[in-house]
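Standup notes
- HV: blocked on the assembly model, inputs below
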Amino acid sequence: MQYLLLIYGNENAMLNAPKEASSQMLGAYMAYTEALKKSGVLVGSNRLRPTAEATTVRNPGGKKSVINGPFAETREQLGGYYLIEAPDLDAALSWAARCPGAAHGSIEVRPIWTM
Amino acid sequence: MKVLLLMYQDETAMQRLPREEYGKLHGAFVAYVQALKDGGALLGNHGLRPTGEAKTVRKQRVLDGPFAETKEQLAGYFLLEVPDMEAALSWAKRHPTAPYGSVEVRPVWT
């Protein structure tokens, strides 16, 4: 089964982190990505640019609006994702717990809809 | 540039759409995916199962449900390759689920 791990963290804290802390974090993410690859679990992943660059389109009842910023203002922001192939939810959750982002924020685990 | 389109919808309302409307939406969705493919813009897309099946890991604890309770819920995403943000927004505006909620456009970090 495929699962999407959504990484939520405080992007301001991340962007303003001391250089040493942010390079440590980057290293931890590289190691994590490598571990996912080695286990044959990784399907895809991307890091997102900060929510200041987000735009949201709404079109309720044909009335289009384009709004600067993300869909929802939250205390932590979506910063990236991993799409993984795991035998079951428990395995996906254990990968989520190992994600470096789990130490500072939240990892939401969502099963992918298979047609 | 790569962008992620995130689809947010009221999942309960979507599950209760009349059959005919749902069928129309499904048709529009298939056409939209084909248009993206024909335009060479589609890198990947996935639908997500309802947030009732979501779990959130926080400080080594596993919680039921999504990260945030919102009026609309993340229902899926499209990863696109587009020349610029304007093109991304024009795809977002054409998205068949835009009338049912929000489509958030996020540039990918390269």
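- HV (later): unblocked. The longest helix of chain A spans residues 19-38. Chain A has a mean pLDDT of 94.
- Next: hand off to the docking folks.
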